[in-house]
Design a protein that fits this description.
Layout (H helix, E strand, L loop, with lengths): L2 H7 L5 E6 L2 E6 L6 H9 L9 H20 L5 H15 L18 H18 L12 H5 L5 H38 L4 E6 L2 E7 H26 L1 E2 L16 H13 L4 E2 L3 H6 L2 H27 L10 E2 L17 H24 L2 E2 L2 E2 L2 H25 L5 E2 L2 H6 L10 H4 L1 H14 L3 H8 L4 H7 L10 H4 L5
Parallel strand pairs: 5-6
Antiparallel strand pairs: 1-2, 3-4, 7-10, 8-9
Helix pairs in contact: 2-5, 3-4, 3-5, 3-7, 3-9, 4-5, 5-7, 7-8, 7-13, 8-11, 11-12, 11-13, 12-13, 16-17
């Protein structure tokens, strides 16, 4: 049970009596919520996480848009609609967050949170009009704030709009920033030839800049996927009311409300072309979560690679140096760990966990409604925010400060897989024998090849030049036998 509800239960605070269709409830005197919310406080004392700020912002924007649409259609009095719009704007701006007291583990439709919004906005509107809290006069939470709406279309709409806000404001800008930083490093490191690795074993040479261009390419494609997710989430259920039929709403309500919502959000928000799928499933959210999961997988790969590339610095790979941001050990002096990369990897693991929950949540659509909307809303919006925060921090505190060491170029000459360049010239089996002998004797491939072939020093220098192994070359492939 939260602090405010606990105080009411123990009589530590003054309260007022409010009535709903089930009877009287005692609500803290200064609270803007009403009987419906107070019932939910008592019914779900689970201490779980609250809805993300952007979800509450989305609820405020939806209620404001709905009030203005209903007023334009002549369905609620202009003065009431204006007060609702002003109160809903305060909700969107975060001024009334303390009055949203429910966590996400509640009724699967989110009805309790929709009523929390209706009651808070109604009571705040009553205050703005000089009325008495809890009186429902001149503003009623159901008859005015919720007019032409249902929890079953408002909550999935808030889920979508909250995720759109998080994508636009957090994740997409962070991915663009990270992409630019990686591209900058790809240019900076383009002349550095080092040993490639496959299966954690030495492979043919690669430029460090090419590795970083690969990372940039992963993020570039994540941006494409998340942009498509933004488009998916821009389709909303508002206007379907209880089961998608639009009962008790004006035919023009959704068009008008979504047009106003688009203006307030700053991106196009459109009424779904099929309200029945929009309210009975969370398919759009599941698809968006899949894109988020893929971005997390990409980020994990990049963070893990730079962690390995910086390992050591003396007993590991040590081909790059990461910025030193904090001491790495309470017992080992001078130790510095790749903490930013590690934090990114943990965020990615959490995001992938969110996706698993969202995917399972999507399976709980039963006939005309999904039963896990609050949980999916939390996991999708928080996952997007968390991933964006991690990506931005990764870019600024890690990637931007990476420096290349001399270790990579120094080790290329001792690499065994430079023998790959010999294969088109002397054949695969002879090249393999040279590589194995070099591994056994500790010599370089060049030294063994000079002894075991008649290619000569000058030609071997050309064939085994690492700088020429990092691009396709018809000349090298057709070099002929020797």
């Amino acid at each position: 049970m939260n602090d405010q509800a606990s105080a009411v239960a123990t009589g530590q605070r003054s309260h007022r009596a409010e009535r709903d269709t089930m009877g009287v409830m005692h609500v803290p005197s200064e609270a803007l919520w009403g009987a419906g919310t107070q019932r939910a406080v008592q019914n779900f004392p689970l201490g779980g996480p609250r809805f993300p700020r952007r979800f509450i912002e989305a609820l405020g924007l939806i209620k404001r848009s709905a009030a203005e649409a209903n007023a334009a259609l002549g369905l609620i009095p202009p003065a009431v609609a204006d007060a609702i719009a002003r109160a809903a704007a305060e909700v969107a701006d975060g001024k009334l967050d303390d009055h949203f007291v429910l966590d996400i583990f509640q009724t699967g439709s989110g009805t309790s949170t929709n009523m929390n919004a209706n009651e808070v906005i109604a009571n705040r509107a009553i205050q703005l009009l000089g009325g008495e809290l809890g009186s429902k006069d001149p503003v009623h939470p159901n008859d005015h704030v919720n007019f032409g709406q249902s929890s079953n279309d408002v909550i999935p709409t808030a889920l979508h709009v909250g995720a759109v806000l998080a994508l636009r404001e957090v994740l997409l800008p962070a991915l663009w920033e990270l992409h630019a930083t990686l591209e900058s490093k790809a240019v900076e490191f383009d002349g550095i030839v080092k040993t490639g690795r496959t299966h954690l074993q030495d492979a043919t040479p690669i430029r460090l800049g090419q590795e970083f261009r690969g990372y940039a390419g992963q993020i570039e494609r994540s941006i494409v996927r998340m942009t498509e997710a933004l488009r998916e989430l821009s389709e909303v259920a508002l206007g379907g009311t209880a089961v998608g039929t639009g009962i008790n709403t004006h035919p023009d309500f959704s068009r008008r409300a979504t047009a106003r919502l688009s203006e307030l959000v700053g991106v196009p928000i459109i009424e779904t072309s099929n309200h029945f799928q929009a309210q009975s499933t969370l398919d759009n959210a599941v698809a968006a979560s899949g894109a988020m999961r893929t971005a997390a997988v990409s980020l994990f790969k990049i963070a893990n690679d730079v962690r390995w590339l910086s390992s050591g610095p003396r007993a590991g790979i040590g081909e790059i140096e990461l910025p030193e941001v904090q001491p790495g050990s309470s017992i080992m002096p001078g130790k510095v760990n790749p903490v930013i990369a590690e934090s990114v990897m943990m965020v990615c693991a959490q995001t992938i966990g969110y996706d698993a929950t969202i995917g399972f949540g999507g399976t709980t659509g039963s006939f005309e409604i999904n039963l896990m909307m609050p949980l999916v809303a939390y996991d999708l919006i928080r996952g997007i925010e968390l991933l964006g925060e991690a990506a931005a921090n990764f870019s600024r505190q890690c990637i931007a400060g990476i420096r290349a060491t001399a270790r990579g170029p120094e080790m290329v000459e001792r690499g065994l897989m430079v023998a790959t360049a010999l294969a088109p010239v002397i054949g695969y089996e002879r090249a393999a024998a040279i590589a194995k002998e070099a591994a056994k004797t500790g010599e370089t491939v060049r030294e063994v090849a000079l002894r075991r072939t008649d290619l000569g020093e000058e030609r071997l220098r050309a064939i085994l030049d690492p700088a020429l192994m990092v691009e396709p070359s018809a000349d090298r492939v057709g070099a002929g036998g020797g």
